[in-house]
């Protein structure tokens, strides 16, 4: 269920946000009964503390501890902790926050209401919030709905989210916003020149496919989102150990993220010509599986030596990126759960992005900070180009040596983009390993909110 704000009402319970060290300032204007209650309950303004002030019949107000600036710098969406702790009721933020902090708190409240309840009752958030004055409620509700879509898709196991079901979700989204969706499936991929998408997915009972959606005014700036849709990754014939296979339902996290972002863009009617391309496959094992040592010819014509069938994501993305590049869009964004190397470098919360466009990099860094959607730039390091050139083919899908794995994967993808106005690749984890404020354990939408900010900033006026 999509989280929305409560209707404004005079009965909404006020929330006073109190920073550590400023409690006495607030208490100075309160009656002795309130001062006594606050001290008796040990409320100090520590980050995440919540205290209800009774009025003899119900709740007079709530106090929310906001800690220090140093405390808050260690994370984001702290107001999600407040939302989760509040008793049932309708609330409004009365004091203690303003500007961007108020907007972040309102979005955190919505995001904290997310529950994945497809397979069991996950409960509901009992508290609701009236959108603060000066903040566009619909915009935040749209963003929360896009994040929820991404999380739902990632959280659903491959038994119910294979290529067939991902196609259904893709087409349902297109239908909801009047977009045009096209699907190329099975052996038709060979006829339409998507050989690497076909090779990676041909061993599965569910045929591989290329999903292609277009929306918006055909004369508007072209923004193309490409998402890795590997619905489950066994590793292929280079089979993963069980410990590495347990979370592979999330290997379509790039596809899930671009669908969440696409939903935001379409719902907000951003004036772009949006295209979304998802190669949807399952990297399975059968007699028909592609093999180590095979050499595949890509849509672009570049040949690729397969040195590890578990480096399959870059193969399907290569054909999809080549297709995207053919119409020379203003921007191509590639999102994928691509390498373990990115996680080793930056951990699960901080996705790296790669771009040669310094202006775009600056915009992404500023947006990531502004909307609390962390990103970190890593380089397309030209000195490593030789690492992806095996000798008997144009490219190597899995360079030996183990060094710079996230960079060599990004360099591989860059070979398939030549004509776009700008290009960025995001190597996301797509998963929150342990629950955090407004971010439950499970599928995570990473980078989409920052990208929305950048796309609106660049093209929001229709230029």
UniProtKB/TrEMBL annotation:
Q: Which residues form the Cytosol aminopeptidase domain?
A: 308-315
What GO terms describe the biological role, i.e. biological process, of this protein? proteolysis
* Any Pfam family matching the protein: Peptidase_M17_N_1
- State if Ubl conjugation is listed as a keyword: no
**GO MF annotation: an example:** metalloaminopeptidase activity
Question: Which keywords accompany this UniProt record?
Answer: Aminopeptidase, Hydrolase, Manganese, Protease
Write out the GO cellular component annotations: cytoplasm
User: Its family?
Assistant: Belongs to the peptidase M17 family.
* Protein name, per record: Leucyl aminopeptidase family protein
